[in-house]
Design brief:
Strand order of the largest sheet: 3-4-5-6-9-10-11-12-13-14
Low-confidence stretches: 1-12, 354-368
Bound molecules: S-adenosyl-L-homocysteine
CATH superfamily of the largest domain: Aldolase class I
Helix content: 25-40%
Largest sheet: 10 strands, mixed
Distance between the termini: 23 Å
Number of domains: 2
CATH class of the largest domain: Alpha Beta
CATH architecture of the largest domain: Alpha-Beta Barrel
Number of strands: 14
Shape: elongated
CATH topology of the largest domain: TIM Barrel
Length: 368
């Protein structure tokens, strides 16, 4: 059986039941009142959902049985189904998750020693079309709702060993193409799960109107810009949306973001051998960013099958970094996490669509 069939067969979710994940504690109190329960039952419900990450109503032992039964008849919690999880030797865990309509996405648990982060998807698939990205190869399916975004975190947290306190929107999709839902999910993270907005990073391909709107929202998340080149010509070869929004406009929107929120930016730069990794390009990058506060995060390319790129050698990466630092620009190098579990954005789902299910199950088992 193809894994695509497995994806289609394995969803036990009732599509017609309304999800509770995504509702605020106040909305859950209203719901309890509407169901002729005291309002505090709604607060209890929200604690089960957002603090204890309960995946089913039967666990909610301090709620009266009749209330639980009625909830079950009318609602579902709305956790995505966990189709697969692959553990990397470095402790990161990559999840393939599926919603009730059988749309699959990826999310990752990332322990960093002092803190634990989760990488969430904002859309199923992506329409940005970046040439080096595995998600782009799979096309765009649909936007995720705020509840579906938070559902990823709850599903991971209910499975994962340590408490997740940091969130990065760096999974599948372009968050600023689904900004209403992303903003609502950030508000839920803050209000219902107690996650500080300062511990949240939203990564964008550079959607100028989205950056401008985010600057006005009063939610000082860290904005990460996927820069990947210092000039428009190379950038728009790698990132098709670069033709719509040139770098000058993107960086000016980033400046506005910094001025409004006081948050330093992160500039992501994937190093692709022979394309954007020369010392001259490092100097051009340093110049381009002059006066804009923020670090450059160098990302060694994570190979995607079929894509025509290679990761540069460590000495070339170091030389690029040295050049930037000479110009006074702090650069960090992102550790490649979970390379052995296909951690590049979108790779797991691509595999799930192509490979026989038995192969996937085997590779998952072998790595646990
Ligand atoms: N659409 C958003 C967020 C999702 S991608 C964005 O473009 O920022 C998150 C990050 O992973 C981006 O910086 C993206 O460029 C990077 N990325 C995608 N494919 C990659 C690959 N194969 N190797 C390394 N980084 C990759």
């Amino acid at each position: 059986m193809q894994t695509a069939d497995l994806l289609a067969d394995s969803s036990g979710r009732e599509e017609n039941l309304l999800p509770l994940v995504g509702r605020t504690a106040a909305e859950l109190e209203d719901l309890a009142a509407e169901m002729k329960q005291p309002r505090f039952r709604g607060r209890q419900l929200s604690r089960w959902i957002y603090h204890r990450c309960a995946g089913d109503f039967d666990r909610m032992s301090d709620l009266p049985l009749t209330f639980r039964e009625e909830l079950k008849r009318r609602f579902q919690l709305g956790h995505p189904e966990m189709l697969q999880h692959l553990r990397s030797r470095d402790g990161s865990i990559k999840y393939l998750l599926q919603y009730g309509d059988r749309v699959a996405i990826e999310a990752v648990y990332l322990p960093f020693g002092r803190y634990v982060s989760a990488c969430l998807s904002s859309q199923a698939g992506c329409a940005a079309g970046c040439r080096f990205c595995a998600t782009a190869l799979g096309g765009f399916q649909r936007n995720l709702t705020a509840g579906e975004i938070i559902g990823q975190l709850l599903a991971i947290q209910s499975d994962a060993p340590s408490r997740i306190g940091h969130i990065v929107y760096m999974g599948m999709g372009e968050p600023l193409f689904n900004l209403d839902a992303v903003i609502q999910s950030v508000r839920l993270l803050r209000a219902e799960m107690g996650i500080s907005v300062r511990n949240i990073t939203i990564s964008t391909v550079g959607v100028v109107p989205g950056i401008q709107r985010l600057a006005e929202e009063g939610l000082p998340v860290t904005l990460a810009l996927s820069l990947h080149a210092a000039d428009d010509e190379i950038r728009s070869q790698l990132i098709p949306t670069g033709r719509k929004w040139p770098l000058a406009e993107i960086l000016s929107a980033c400046r506005t973001y910094y001025e409004r929120t006081g948050r330093r930016l992160t500039f992501e730069y994937i190093l692709l051998e022979g394309i954007n990794d020369s010392p001259e390009q490092a100097r051009a990058l340093g110049k381009r960013l002059a006066g804009l506060p923020g670090n450059v995060n160098l990302i060694p390319y994570n190979p995607v099958p079929g894509a025509p790129y290679r990761r540069p050698s460590s000495s070339r990466i170091q030389a690029f970094r040295d050049e930037l630092e000479k110009m006074g620009r702090a650069a960090t190098q992102r550790m490649t996490r979970g390379l052995d579990v296909n951690a590049a954005c979108g790779q797991l789902r691509l595999q799930a669509a192509d490979l026989p299910a038995t192969n996937l199950a085997l590779s998952a088992g072998a790595r646990q």
